[in-house]
Structure formats: C-alpha cells, structure tokens
Design brief:
The protein is of the alpha/beta class. The chain contains 13 helices and twelve strands.
C-alpha cells in the first residue's frame, strides 16, 4: 500500500466495522478482548495512525509530554535523555520542541510554544531554562532551571550557590587570587546564584571582589568571546576564571590559546554543568556537575504526579565539583618544585 492507510483499510483487513476499529483504538467499551487484540495487530501491520489532534479531542488527553527548550544545546539534550529514560514503561511519549530556532524576536518563546502545543498535542510540559513563566497555562508545567528560582510553579534545579562556591574555593585552594568570573544570562536566576556563590567564596577567603574581573559570558560560546578577550587583555590579568557554564569555559580556554596562553599552565579554568564536551577537551575541563539526566527524570516524576492530581514540588539537587586537567596550582613553580 503506497498511500497512507485509513481507518477503512484497517476495518477491511480486520474484517470488522469502522465503528469497531474506532472503539478498539480509543479503548472504548463494546469490543471483546479478542477482537480488540486482533484490531490492534492489524493497526500495527498496516502502520495506521489516527490523528493525534482528533484523538486528543475525543479522549481529553494525548499521552504526550512536551519538553520545550529555547534551542537544542548540550544542556537541553542531556535533560532530554533523562526525560526519555524516565518515560520508559509509562503510557507517555515525549515531544521535543525548540522555540527560538526560527528567525525573528523570540521574547516570550515559552508562551508561544505552549499556546501551539498545549491542550491538543501535549498533556503537560517541561520548560527548560525559561526566562518567563506563562500564566494560566492550559497544561501542567514543570520548569527546569527557571529564571524565578523556587518561588514560581513546580521546578527542578541544583544548588547553584553551593556549586559556584565550591568551584571558586577550589581555585583559591590552588593559590589563585586573581580569579575572574564570566557570568551567565542576566535573565536567569541560576546566573545570579552562581555569581553570588563566586562572590561569597572570595569574601570568605578575604579576597576583595574586583568588578573588572566580572564580565558577561551569557551561557553561549559566541557571547563569551568578547568578555574572555577583555579579561586576558587586562594589565593585571586573572590567573584563573570561573565561567558560569561549560560552553563559556571552553570558549575561555580557546581564547586563552589564541592569546598564546596554555591551560592550566598560564590560566586555570572551571566551568559549570559537566556537558559531554567538558571531559572530551584537551585539557579536560574542571567543572561543577549538574546531574542533568537525573534532573530530567525528576521533572518527569513531578509532572506525572501533577497530572494525577498531585501538588507542584520544588526539587533542588546537589552540584558536585569534578576536578580535571584545566586547573593547577598557582604560581606554577610551586607545582613543579
């Protein structure tokens, strides 16, 4: 059969009426267990698919969970793996949707994405790093790393302040005092929390916070380039950098090499997230690990609970410092002696 099979084709192949096929695929009463199983076998053999929108309107549900992201970058992809794993052995499928890959102004991508999908294509949504939270959404929502922190709807995040403090304390423990910070997106609470952890570690060590050493990184490699170059062109440049995520940390290492500096001999660098590229670099990146797949799984558990009538939850997970090859003792001579 070259054309797309119809419900009439299924009925003809199964030797039953169209009404019987409709009842079987929609799990309605009036069909014996034997006939139900027979119809579903024919459906599978023919590759018949009913309209998801039409089915959802009849059932009032779709059995699909939406994962809504701004773009398919490493952070979101690892979360998606966790979501997919957690939905195995459940009746739910997953629909991944990126809201900022098209041309134009993407402010409010979260609201637009939900308006396109909610109620007809998905039963609930996991929003990844939303900068605004849609009000009066048509489906339950769990936000991962939201801009509002724990005060908004259901959410999953890590203890960003503690993770950033651990990263900065690691550099201080290696003897660094000129420690810069490439901060993250100004519209996300996680970025403010990581800067707060950086500042707290310096203050606790009695090291004055130098505003000249805190520049924009923006969570993207492209947005970190200017800040990274500016740090290295300072008269008294930093000996170490804590970047708010791994993408900007890796860009910091690249820009350092561009300036003839070796990591970690001339510059120690720490990131945040522990994306796959962090361990694959040369040197491998010291970073603060977010349990991204576990966070995706936690978001699923909260959302499924809400779909069953449960209350929204706010889950905070531990961030773990992972020491690799991008950090070293300063001054270097101490390590060589």
């Amino acid at each position: 059969m070259n054309r797309r099979p119809t419900i009439t084709d299924v009925a003809r192949a199964a030797g039953v009426s169209v009404a019987t096929v409709s009842k079987a695929i929609n799990d309605r009463d009036g069909v014996s267990a034997t006939t139900h199983a027979h119809v579903l076998r024919v459906v599978a053999e023919l590759g018949y698919e009913s309209s998801l929108v039409a089915t959802s309107m009849r059932r009032g549900r779709t059995n699909v969970i939406g994962v809504l992201v701004a773009e398919f970058e490493p952070f979101a992809l690892q979360l998606l793996q966790g979501v997919s794993s957690a939905l195995q052995d459940t009746p739910y499928d997953v629909l991944a949707y990126a809201g900022t890959v098209s041309a134009g102004d993407h402010l409010g991508w979260e609201r637009r994405s939900l308006s396109r999908l909610g109620g007809t294509l998905i039963d609930g949504a996991i929003l990844v790093t939303p900068s605004t939270m849609p009000q009066n959404a048509s489906v339950p929502i769990v936000a991962v790393d939201p801009h509002t922190g724990p005060d908004g709807p259901a959410s999953v995040a890590v203890h960003n302040v503690d993770g950033a403090r651990a990263a900065t304390e690691h550099l201080i423990g290696l003897g660094h005092r000129r420690i810069a910070h490439l901060r993250g997106r100004s519209d996300l609470e996680s970025a403010h929390q990581r800067e707060a952890g950086y500042r707290a570690a310096l203050e606790e060590a009695g090291i004055p916070v130098d505003p000249a050493l805190i520049l924009e990184g923006g969570y993207r490699a492209a947005s970190a380039t200017v800040g990274a170059r500016a740090l290295l062109e300072l008269t008294d440049r930093p000996t170490a950098v804590f970047a708010a995520n791994d993408l900007t940390a890796l860009e910091m290492i690249r820009v350092a090499a561009e300036h003839g500096l070796s990591t970690p001999r001339d510059l120690s660098v720490v990131g945040f997230d522990d994306i796959p590229d962090a361990a694959a670099g040369a040197p491998a990146l010291t970073t603060v690990r977010q349990p991204l797949t576990d966070m995706g799984g936690a978001a699923v558990r909260v959302l499924l609970s809400m779909l069953s009538g449960g209350e929204p939850e706010h889950i905070r997970m531990r961030a773990e410092l992972i020491v690799r090859g991008s950090t070293a003792v300063f001054p270097r001579s101490l390590a060589d002696s």
